[in-house]
From TrEMBL:
Record protein name field: Histidine kinase
The organism's place on the tree of life at top rank: Bacteria
Keywords for this protein: Kinase, Membrane, Transferase, Transmembrane, Transmembrane helix
Organism: Flavobacterium hungaricum
Keyword GTP-binding included in the entry's annotation: no
InterPro entries linked to this entry: Bact_2-comp_sensor_kinase (IPR050640), Sig_transdc_His_kin_internal (IPR010559)
GO molecular function terms listed in the Swiss-Prot or TrEMBL record: kinase activity
Location of the Signal transduction histidine kinase internal region domain: 153-231
Parts of the chain that traverse the membrane: 12-28, 40-58, 79-98, 110-131
């Protein structure tokens, strides 16, 4: 979990502003012909010490170690408490300096009090605004973390939803093969085992190479061929360079599954799917031969779209007309494996 940043105010700002206020407070004394350098320093030190106290009091009175939020109103109880405490501190500072430096010519106590109230209001307002900005950034960070956690949870859910019916269909096919003593039953079991081994291994990854994806797809296609025989064909023309691209696991399998779900697959009307590269995209294309009464929920393509948006931050492109259906997925060649 990301560590929450503690609210802080720069020490340079605190000390620099306190020194600046002390210097400004001494300006009238510079034009007083009766003032001595010692008088200027003593009067300025009161302003300096008071400013430091007000800075640190206002900072440490904030709930920076809790999740509580400060009041949105500038005028509230904390401001009145700060002003009252400031008046008391200024009185103590003036009295202490009068006792310690009886020889010095000091400003009237009321001038110190008015100066103290003004400094108190300025510092309080500045700290208040800084803390409100800090809380706004913290809320933004919390929202961003929540968003990322939500996206991660959605992606995990999507990975769990890959192939929900495929095992059922495969076991039905295997049962049919066993019933007729098909000699390819053993090979079918091995391919089914390979496919689910790949599935378990790939679920741990967000992205895999297209070469690995094609290896999974080969087992998947073998199982489909056992089910549909010559009613299904996949033509793959991707070369070795294109196989270096990375994609979310099961992208190709989901696209093939989507084609089978919505199109007629039969010996009389074979479904031919082409897999090739075009303009930095991997293309899955099939001839449209829609099943009668087939309804599309859009879940398969939506699954792929969300995973590409979450992991690669790119969009897939869908092109379709009355005869051809294409899905173009961006080919990314950086190593994103996690």
């Amino acid at each position: 979990m990301e560590k929450v940043t503690r609210f802080q105010v720069s020490k340079r700002l605190i000390w620099g502003s306190s020194i600046s206020l002390a210097v400004l407070a001494s300006v009238p004394k510079l034009f007083d012909t009766f003032s001595k350098p010692a008088d200027i320093v003593i009067n300025s030190s009161i302003t300096f010490l008071f400013s430091l106290f007000i800075w640190y009091y206002n900072i440490y009175s904030l709930p920076k170690f809790t999740t509580k939020r400060t009041s949105k109103s500038f005028v509230n109880g904390k401001l009145f408490l700060s002003v009252l405490l400031g008046i008391a501190i200024m009185v103590l500072l003036v009295v202490a300096h009068q006792e310690l430096f009886q020889f010095a010519q000091m400003d009237a106590p009321i001038m110190f009090e008015l100066r103290g109230v003004l400094i108190n209001l300025i510092v309080y307002m500045f700290v208040h605004l800084l803390f409100q900005n800090y809380q706004t950034r913290q809320i933004g960070s919390e929202l961003e973390r929540a968003k990322m956690l939500n996206l991660g949870a959605q992606y995990d859910l999507l990975k769990q939803q890959v192939n929900p019916h495929f095992l059922f269909n495969s076991l039905n096919t295997l049962k049919s093969m066993v019933d007729i003593n098909d000699p390819n039953s053993s090979d079918f079991i091995l391919k089914l085992s390979d496919f689910y081994r790949f599935t378990l291994e790939s679920r741990k990854l967000d992205l895999i190479s297209l070469r690995e994806e094609i290896e999974i797809l080969d087992s998947y296609v073998y199982l489909l061929k056992a089910r549909f025989e010559d009613g299904f064909e996949l033509i793959n023309t991707l070369n070795d360079e294109q196989l270096k691209a990375v994609i979310p696991p099961f992208t190709m399998q989901l696209l093939i599954e989507n084609c089978i779900k919505h199109n007629v697959v039969s010996l009389e009307k074979p479904l031919i799917i082409k897999l090739y590269s075009e303009n930095d995209c991997i293309v899955v294309e099939n001839k449209v031969q829609l099943k009668r009464g087939a309804l599309s929920t859009g879940f398969g393509l939506d699954n792929i779209t969300q995973r590409f948006a979450h992991l690669i931050h790119k969009e897939i492109v869908i092109e379709k007309n009355e005869t051809i259906f294409k899905v173009k997925i961006p080919a990314v060649y950086d190593n994103h494996n996690s």
